[in-house]
Structure prediction request, 214 residues.
Amino acid sequence: MSKEEIAAMREEYGSRELRRKDLLPDPIQQFEQWFSEAREAELHEPNALTLSTVGLDGCPASRTVLMKFFNEQGFVFYTNYESAKAKEIEAVPKASILFPWLPLERQVRIEGGVEKVSVAESLKYFASRPRESQIGAWVSNQSSVIESRALLLNKMEELKAKFEGEEIPLPEFWGGYRLVPERIEFWQGGKGRVHDRFLYSREQSDWGIERLAP
Ligand SMILES: Cc1cc2nc3c(=O)[nH]c(=O)nc-3n(C[C@H](O)[C@H](O)[C@H](O)COP(=O)(O)O)c2cc1C
Prediction:
């Protein structure tokens, strides 16, 4: 593909609109509505989000994780508590998450503080995972440098044998984080690049809403 072809890649947006009057006063309810629409539109993994943390050297770091729960308290994902992202969150407990629902010409950006969920909450989710994924959590020393794939596969076999006929326990180095939103922005692509953006910001117990220039 030529450089010119890449430069010429563009989509016209405007299949939908987002107007002030359409917004629900609570951004979590607004998120719920858009999330339902993303599911109804059969988007692939609509719960996949880009999680950006502040790297230990101050450089932002992004990766995809899966949202496994959300409510008024925040947005929950699960990971290894010794991974690079976890170390970054422990150092600076703030993050930005982004849902790229591109076929709907939408994105949702959420920023806020990050906290660990309770062990009880992690345990409940862990217990709902397929056995193979439970063992997977034990196998991977996530983000560390490894010699080969074979090491992981051997460890998987070892652990399968070790836990044979038993419930897989929740590793103490694995669990959930909750992003507690301070700001939530809904973006809807518009005709001629006149997009709609609405930013909800937390104001004590309530939310303020502002329209942002696209
Ligand atoms: C679609 C998709 C879903 C993912 N879901 C998760 C997840 O829920 N939790 C997780 O720890 N990693 C998940 N990953 C892997 C992460 O993107 C990342 O590679 C891993 O967490 C290590 O990141 P870190 O080294 O920055 O900690 C997912 C990757 C993709 C592409």
Notes: Residues 45, 48, 61, 63-66, 77-80, 83-85, 142-143 surround flavin mononucleotide (CB under 6 Å).
